Amino acid sequence: MMTDPIADMLTRIRNAARAKKSELVLPHSRIKWEIAKILEKGGYLERVLDVPGPRREIRLVIRFEAGAPRVQDLKRISKPGRRVYVGWQEIPRVLSGYGMAIVSTSQGMMPGHEARARKLGGELICEVS
């Protein structure tokens, strides 16, 4: 039984990147899809595909630069046992702006810099560097 599908997704991406695998497949869910699209827009993933079928899946293609994965670290912040909520001024600047925080706001999931610009706080899902 899996209690935290988001942590599982982040771990799969981290493991695939460290093993230099270019592709991985995940079970589909709306929240995983939104996180994957944010990672794609942030330049951490090459492509995100929705694979239809009896069991919908998400196919992720990891971006590599000079043989190294663009994703160095994915860290889950808010967990099922300890939710972490932040105001818009408290959203962290990961690696002085070179990384990215992902925030779940009242207007949907978005990168931390976008939530800060819109002055929206919310649940701090994870940090990417």
What's the structural blueprint in terms of helices and strands?
Blueprint (H helix, E strand, L loop, with lengths): L4 H14 L4 E5 L2 H12 L3 E7 L5 E6 L1 E2 L2 E2 L4 E3 L8 E2 L13 E6 L2 E4 H6 L4 E7 L1
Antiparallel strand pairs: 1-3, 2-3, 4-5, 6-10, 7-10, 8-9, 8-10
Task: Tell me about this structure.
This protein has 129 residues and is α+β, with helices and mostly antiparallel strands. It has 2 domains: 3-67, Ribosomal Protein S8, Chain: A, domain 1; 72-126, 2-Layer Sandwich (Dna Ligase, domain 1), CATH 3.30.1490.10. Helices cover 25% and strands 34% of the residues. The protein is built from 3 helices and 10 strands; from the N terminus they run H-E-H-E-E-E-E-E-E-E-E-H-E. It has helices at residues 5-18, 30-41, 112-117; strands spanning 23-27, 45-51, 57-62, 64-65, 68-69, 74-76, 85-86, 100-105, 108-111, 122-128. The strands form 3 sheets. Strands 6, 7, 8, 9 and 10 form a 5-stranded antiparallel sheet that branches. A hairpin with a 2-residue loop joins strand 8 (100-105) and strand 9. The longest helix has 14 residues, at 5-18. The mean pLDDT is 97. Belongs to the universal ribosomal protein uS8 family. One of the primary rRNA binding proteins, it binds directly to 16S rRNA central domain where it helps coordinate assembly of the platform of the 30S subunit. It holds the Pfam family Ribosomal_S8.
